[in-house]
């Protein structure tokens, strides 16, 4: 992709027109090729950008404005429709390019499988990488109905690549018995149901390490974010999600990348999910990268 000109479509609020001077690059990954329940997350990135216009560029939580951060919205990566492996290769190449320019990648999904190639590339640059994963689902399956490239397998691939002891999972409330066993055997830091207190406890242990943050919108209860492909009851509130982001912000960790995935706009005619996702992205931009 070319970075010498601004994306011609709708951009997220506050985006710079200058790639060169931007520290963070926002980009979309419109892929839902392996969705097993409800497809549609490929439409998430574009709709989140449109809905971002409802928000102010100023965060009263953080007392910061998007004018204080140089970030570039590169638009959506053009992915091979219906081809998971080819799409993952295209995401890898894109992230490689960003890292070669010393940029911090911030992706919008798309299904959660898109996280795998991003982490794989970032781990090449940062071999002591820590991954913080917020989700309703463990995503630790070896395969899903025989398919190893599935939205149910990215964290298994990540654990096998970076080491289970470097993966921290929060808010998980849906998994198979095999996934629970694997998490224990692999040494994954596994915090089912809870998010805020465990996060506060582990922050001192990862303070000096590069950190990647991956958030699946379905970590929230469907009452707050119904627009997702695999909703699961019993999740956290939107306020708890903002507390997570602000806790990470206050910790001043070395965040080397992030993503927000699994927003499927078609299942929420009220658009509260895309509006929430936009606000989360604003808070992450201002909290994690300023």
From TrEMBL:
Residues reported in the UniProt entry to bind Mn(2+): 112, 135, 137, 139, 216, 218
Bound cofactor: record note: Binds 2 manganese ions per subunit.
InterPro entries reported for this sequence: Agmatinase-rel (IPR005925), Ureohydrolase (IPR006035), Ureohydrolase_dom_sf (IPR023696), Ureohydrolase_Mn_BS (IPR020855)
Cleavable signal peptide: none
Record-linked PROSITE patterns: ARGINASE_1, ARGINASE_2
SUPFAM superfamilies hit by this protein: Arginase/deacetylase
A GO molecular-function descriptor: agmatinase activity
Pfam entry (one): Arginase
Organism domain of life: Bacteria
Keywords: Hydrolase, Manganese, Metal-binding
GO biological process: putrescine biosynthetic process from arginine, via agmatine
Cofactor(s) needed for function: Mn(2+)
PANTHER family to which the protein is assigned, alphabetical: ARGINASE/AGMATINASE, GUANIDINO ACID HYDROLASE, MITOCHONDRIAL
Similarity comment: family membership: Belongs to the arginase family. Agmatinase subfamily.
Protein name: Agmatinase
Source organism of the structure: Seinonella peptonophila
């Amino acid at each position: 992709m070319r970075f010498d000109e601004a994306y011609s479509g709708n951009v997220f609020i506050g985006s710079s027109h200058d790639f060169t001077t931007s520290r963070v690059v926002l980009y979309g990954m419109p892929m839902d090729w392996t969705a097993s329940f409800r497809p549609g997350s490929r439409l998430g990135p574009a709709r989140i950008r449109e809905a971002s216009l409802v928000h102010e560029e100023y965060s009263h939580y953080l007392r910061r404005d998007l004018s204080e951060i140089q970030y570039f919205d590169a638009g959506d990566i053009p992915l091979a429709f219906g081809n998971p492996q080819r799409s993952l290769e295209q995401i890898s190449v894109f992230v490689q390019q960003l890292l070669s320019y010393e940029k911090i990648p911030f992706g919008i999904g798309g299904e959660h499988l898109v996280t795998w190639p991003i982490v794989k590339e970032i781990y090449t640059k940062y071999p002591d990488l820590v991954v913080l994963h917020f989700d309703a689902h463990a995503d630790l399956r070896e395969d899903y109905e025989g398919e190893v490239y599935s939205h149910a397998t990215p964290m298994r691939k990540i654990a096998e690549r970076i080491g289970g002891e470097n993966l921290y999972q929060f808010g998980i409330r849906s998994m198979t018995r095999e996934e629970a066993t694997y998490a224990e055997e692999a040494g994954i830091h596994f915090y089912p149901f809870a998010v805020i207190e465990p996060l506060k406890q582990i922050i001192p242990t990862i303070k000096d390490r590069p950190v990647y943050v991956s958030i699946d919108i379905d970590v929230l209860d469907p009452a707050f974010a119904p627009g997702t492909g695999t909703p699961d009851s019993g999740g956290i509130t939107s306020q708890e999600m903002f507390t997570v982001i602000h806790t990470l912000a206050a910790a001043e960790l070395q965040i080397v990348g992030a993503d927000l995935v699994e927003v499927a706009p078609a299942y929420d005619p009220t658009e509260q999910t895309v509006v929430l996702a936009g606000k989360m992205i604003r808070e992450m931009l201002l909290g994690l990268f300023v």
